[in-house]
Amino acid sequence: MEYRRLGKHGMRVSEISLGAWLTYGGSVEEQNSIKCIHTALDNGINFIDNADVYSGGNAERVLGLALQGDTYERRHLVLSSKVYWPISDNIQDYGLSRKHIMDSIEGTLDRLQQDYIDIYYCHRFDQKTPLEETVAAMDDLVRDGRIRYWGTSVWTAVQLERVMGVVKEMGATPPAVEQPRYNMLDRTIELEIMDTARFHGIGITPWSPLQQGLLTGKYNDGIPEDSRATRSEVLKRWLNEETVDKVRKLTEIAASLDLSMAQFALAWILRRPEISSVITGASRPEQILDNIVASGKTIPQDVLEKVEEILGNKPDFPPPYAPQLMDRV
Q: Per-residue pLDDT averaged across 65-83, rounded?
């Protein structure tokens, strides 16, 4: 396993990390969840991502159970969670107010059975709470030692610039990491988000790197019964013949490099130096063992060019004075 710094910061995280979204404490049985977590930790993964809203708090509870005992030294682990979405119907249980942040961190630490977490993400941007209030609360948590770093998740470049301006004015702790969606099929962050993160030294830890399983190649020959595609409306929107045909071609390239399609998709993300760690999901231990092979893999430049030809989705700004924009000036 290879490790990278969290942006410009000193903490190092494994290139492949394990996330609890849609799995632990929910669709994956508890003992199997714990086995997956132990498999990850036993094979070099040191970063486990979570959120209070995942399975209504059960994902944090299961992770807490998995870490009990003396097998894993806490100081060697990087644990994260998130705050924003409600896990109850109470009017206070939402957003990034000081009250919700302070109440939520206590619940998270209790469920994880930990004294602190390493990264605390603002799970979305809160349009209804002053940014200064959110920054002050996160800064207090860092200074209190209940979190080591704080970050953002699915914030726009404008929102990241705003928060960096606020922390500078306040002399507060800046966010160290952004967690967006990023994969071969969804490359939006390659424009402004990556540029902004690079400029400010913010790490990037993307989620959904395999587009909910589509980039594993499991749908190349149709939709298996009881697969996620039969339940996920988001995934169904991506499952069209054009996209699946692209994945088939990418699967052939992956095989030529002795990589599975999943490994190839993860290594492709890690080609970017802005990426600190790729958050992967797994419902079985063998999926984790397959994913970690991607760490340290280098994709040759000629292969990357072939991938660009197949994908045909590299994001770019429109050229200056493009004719279609002239009427809007």
A: 97
CA atoms of 7 and 183, how far apart (whole Å): 19
User: Which residue range is the domain that position 277 belongs to?
Assistant: 3-213+260-298
- State the Cα–Cα distance between residues 65 and 35, nearest whole angstrom: 11
Residue 130 placed within a domain: yes
Residue 165's CATH number: 3.20.20.100
Mean pLDDT score of the chain, rounded to an integer?
A: 94
Q: Inform me whether the pLDDT recorded for 236 exceeds 80.
A: no
Tell me whether residue 235 is in a domain: no
* pLDDT value for 221: 86
Distance CA(99)–CA(78), nearest Å, equals 25
Tens of pLDDT along 299-314?
999 999 999 999 999 9
Give pLDDT tens digits for 21-31: 989 999 999 99
Would the pTM of this model clear 0.85, i.e. be above it?
A: yes
Query: Into how many domains does the chain fold?
Result: 1
> For 40, what's the count of Cα atoms within 13 Å in the CB-facing half-sphere?
32
Residue 325 burial (CB count, 10 A): 11
* 91 located within any domain: yes
Active site residue 54: yes
Query: Which candidate, 4, 9, 108, 109, places its Cα nearest to that of 46?
Result: 4
DSSP state of 63: H
Q: How many CB atoms lie within 10 A of CB 224?
A: 12
Catalytic residue among 54, 84, 94, 219: 54
262-288 burial, b at 16+ Cβ within 10 Å, e below that, comes to bbbbbbbbbeeebbbbbbbbbbebebb
CA–CA distances in Å: residue 214 to residues 74, 162, 219, 235, 308: 34, 35, 6, 8, 18
On whether residue 225 sits in a domain, the answer given is no
Round to whole Å and give the CA distance between 154 and 134.
Answer: 16
The mean per-residue pLDDT over the stretch 14-20 comes to 98
Report pLDDT for 115: 98
